């Protein structure tokens, strides 16, 4: 007989909270075993593997909707579809990295200006943040110095 777990033991085994398992069950990501008459549900290694899959996918940046899409392909015969999902996620990650590089460049320049600032001259970082050109949300490109 395969090893079986209570939901609490499963949570420890998979490194998640019990409420996380319940949430995933409500979302249809993890199955819920039948409850024997007068007993408690028993989970298996299949449930633990699925929970670890979900956690690993989230670590790679996939949201739960994307995880559901990946789980639908888990039989291993849909590599092309999985590749497309991975490629889209990779493109998103690359876009974020480019945006973060722009933010890093702008902040580096502003911090350098602050470091060189002496006396009672207005702080360049504060002045740049108050500037109308920087008020748009998500527009670090506009933080030019």
What do you see in this structure?
It is a single chain. The protein is mostly helical and 145 residues long. It has helices at 7-14, 18-27, 45-59, 64-71, 79-116, 124-130. The protein has a domain at 1-72: Multidrug-efflux Transporter Regulator, Chain: A, Domain 2 (Orthogonal Bundle). The model has no long low-confidence stretch (mean pLDDT 86).
| Count of DSSP strands | 0
The overall pLDDT average reads 86
Major sheet summary line: none
Please give the CATH class of the domain at 1-72: Mainly Alpha
Order of helices and strands: HHHHHH
DSSP summary: helix tally: 6
Low-confidence stretches: none
**Helical content (DSSP H or I, runs of 4+):** 55-70%
State the shape. elongated
Give the termini separation: 67 Å
Gross CATH architecture of the domain at 1-72 = Orthogonal Bundle
Would you give the CATH topology of the domain at 1-72?
Multidrug-efflux Transporter Regulator, Chain: A, Domain 2
User: What class would the helix/strand composition place it in?
Assistant: mainly alpha
Strand content: under 5%
Radius of gyration: 24 Å
Give structural attributes.
145 residues, mainly alpha, Multidrug-efflux Transporter Regulator, Chain: A, Domain 2
């Amino acid at each position: 007989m395969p090893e079986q777990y209570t939901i609490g033991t499963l949570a420890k085994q998979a490194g998640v909270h019990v409420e996380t398992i319940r949430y995933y069950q409500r979302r249809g990501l993890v199955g819920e075993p039948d409850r024997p008459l007068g007993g408690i549900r028993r989970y298996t290694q299949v449930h633990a593997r699925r929970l670890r899959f979900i956690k690993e996918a989230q670590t790679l940046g996939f949201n739960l909707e994307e995880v559901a899409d990946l789980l639908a392909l888990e039989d291993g015969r849909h590599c092309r579809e999985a590749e497309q999902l991975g490629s889209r996620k990779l493109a998103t990650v690359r876009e974020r990295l480019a945006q973060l590089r722009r933010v890093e460049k702008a902040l580096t320049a502003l911090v350098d200006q602050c470091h060189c600032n002496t006396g009672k001259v207005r702080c360049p970082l504060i002045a740049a943040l108050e500037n109308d050109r920087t008020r748009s949300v998500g527009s670090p490109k506009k933080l030019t110095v």
